[in-house]
Every structure is written in C-alpha cells, then in structure tokens.
Design brief:
The structure is a single chain. The protein is mainly alpha-helical. It has one domain. About 85% of the residues lie in helices and about 0% in strands. The protein contains three helices and no strands. Helix 1 packs antiparallel against helix 2. It is globular, with a radius of gyration of 16 Å.
C-alpha cells in the first residue's frame, strides 16, 4: 500500500484546499470546480498519452471515467462504513 502514499498525500492537499475554499462558498461551487479541474487535467493527461487524441478519445475517456467511478464507489463505501460506526 506504500506505493499509493504519494497519491493519497497529493489528494489530501487538494482536499485541504477545497475545504478552505468551501468556507467562503455559500453556493457550493467548490465541488463542481474540483470536478471541472479534474476533468481539465485529465484531458491534458490524455493528450500526453497518445499521438492521436481524436482517435483515442473514446477509449481514454472511458478509462478515466472508469477510474473515477471506482474511486468514487470506494470513497462512498468508506463514508457508509464510517457513518454506521457512529450510530
């Protein structure tokens, strides 16, 4: 699991910034902004992963969406477990 430590540390930095921004975000834009930033950066990463982004767009988009869904499901399950522990 130690190979994931840099990923978790970077994610924690993004979450810390999002939490700080959310303190002054009565409209709840921070979550959408974070997802937009992730999409923008993912498009940049995809452009660097292929010589023909137009041809590979569908497969790269599917891979990124699958990764996101897996991470989201894992984190929602984690929240469910923690909520059950509090009750």
């Amino acid at each position: 699991m130690s190979g994931y430590q840099p990923l978790f540390q970077a994610a924690d930095q993004f979450i810390s910034l999002a939490n700080e921004l959310a303190k002054n975000d009565p409209d709840g834009n921070v979550g959408a902004a974070l997802r937009f930033a992730a999409a923008r950066y993912s498009a940049f990463e995809a452009s660097n992963a292929t010589a023909d982004l137009a041809a590979d767009k569908a497969s790269l988009s599917e891979q990124i969406a699958t990764d996101f869904r897996t991470m989201l499901d894992h984190n929602v399950d984690d929240y469910i477990r923690h909520l059950a522990e509090r009750r």
